[in-house]
Design brief:
Elongation Factor Tu (Ef-tu), domain 3, six-stranded antiparallel barrel, 3 domains, 25% helix, five-stranded parallel beta sheet, 351 residues, single chain, SH3 type barrels, alpha/beta, Rossmann fold, 31% strand, 8 helices
Amino acid sequence: MEKLKSKNKVLLGLSGGVDSTTAALLLKKNGFDVTGYYFDVTGENTEGRDDAQRVADQLEIPLVSDDVSQIFKETVIDNFLSEYSEGRTPNPCVVCNPNVKFKKLLENADRIGAYYIATGHYCRIVYDREKDFYFVRRAANEKKDQTYMLYRLGQDVLSRLIFPLGEFSDKNDIRSIARENRLDNADKKDSQEICFIPEGKSYDDYMKSCGIKDIPGDFVDKEGNILGKHKGISHYTVGQRKGLGIALGKPAFVLRIDRKTNRVIIGSNEDLFSTKVICDDYIFTAADADYWNGKKVSAKIRYSAIPSEAILTIDNKKITATFSEPQRAVTPGQSIVFYDGDKVIGGGFIK
């Protein structure tokens, strides 16, 4: 039986890093009854669990540890391998957040009677009273903003979500708070890698260990002329220059990957720019999709991109975003995320 949920109680994703630890500390200082939540995506990360437990002990909060390896493999890892095998470039966090991380946070919050959930993401939540909808809002720290990863979260999550770090404009402030409170991980290095790929292991090595086989094929130019041999399409992504293993006497970039013919099309940097981006499997935070048809928004085609002005055309289960400025290296499998000002309004997967 589900417990009655307390609005003073919050379940926070606790990885053992400085961001989630400081987020827990800030919630405690604001009077919340905080429980940490560590989810193990491999089922074997004893080091990660131990780090999270040490942090929880120092903060004097309980910790819930959860082995989510089965659902994570079926939902995130299998998708990651399949997408690369098809010549697409996935973003695992975009898939994980709505289907694993925040789903499990809600389930466990309900189980322990916590109304709120929280994470150490650099984002903000805003409630639009007129529309009666919650939105993810860009962080005060634009360099660390993580809204791109969270565009697929629904109202069931957003209405109960807290981002304690969203109003901090400088990551150094977070570390300063951690140091002032003598947190052991105040100077712990930020994680930069995909969480399920072992440190020091390349994407190629990981995919080989999962049974993905290399099938060599042809490098070709835009006219279809064969320029050389590639070692398998899973080794490449649109916009890539380094590691092609081909010398043409001039810079060469991956323009497109053709799974059906097992060809990698290469060309110049100028060939990488386009003004139209098509996506499918899209989602909007609020209002029907038709509301945004013909509307001007800002959009970004990858996590590190700067939002740029675009007009949306919605037709036949896909969206065409026409940008006012050409975008470089539009990459199938990545997401295009739409913003209204600093609010995330939706997005989809680039075709």
